[in-house]
Amino acid sequence: MRGLLLAGVLFCAPGFAAVQAASNAPEAMAASALADARRIVDAAAQPAAAWTGPHTGPRAE
User: Fold this and answer.
1) Could you tell me if 37 and 13 are in contact, meaning their C-beta atoms sit under 8 angstroms apart?
2) Angle at the Cα of 8 (from 21 to 27), degrees rounded to 5?
3) Rounded Cα–Cα distance for residues 43 and 61 (Å)
4) Residues 35, 4: contact at Cβ < 8 Å?
5) Helix, strand and coil percent figures for the chain, each rounded to 5
6) pLDDT value of position 21
7) In angstroms, how far is CA 42 from the centroid of its own chain?
8) Contact, 9 vs 41, CB < 8 A?
9) Is residue 33 within 8 Å of 19, Cβ to Cβ?
10) Which of 13, 16, 17, 51 fits a 20 to 30 Å CA distance from 7?
11) What are the tens digits of pLDDT across the range 42-59?
């Protein structure tokens, strides 16, 4: 799931950056949007906690 989120962010970030750069918004707002995107990517790239749930049980369908 984390990989899917990361792929989605990486897929959308360049388009988002291009739209922000093309708009009439001040550079500070565009830099803030890019910083937010970088924070999201960095958070998604963090290792996940180890699975602590049951190791046995019914098979998923």
Assistant:
1) yes
2) 15
3) 31
4) no
5) 65, 0, 35
6) 54
7) 7
8) yes
9) no
10) 51
11) 999 988 888 777 777 777
17 and 48 Cβ atoms separated by less than 8 Å: no
Place of tokens 């950056």: 17
- With 70 as the cut, is the pLDDT of residue 23 above it? no
DSSP 3-22: HHHHHHHHHHHHHHHHHHHH
Residue with tokens 């550079």: 27
pTM for the full model?
Answer: 0.39
Residue 18, token pair as written in the block: 């291009």
Question: Would you say 6 and 45 are in contact if contact means Cβ atoms under 8 Å apart?
Answer: yes
Do the Cβ atoms of 15 and 23 come closer than 8 Å? Answer: no
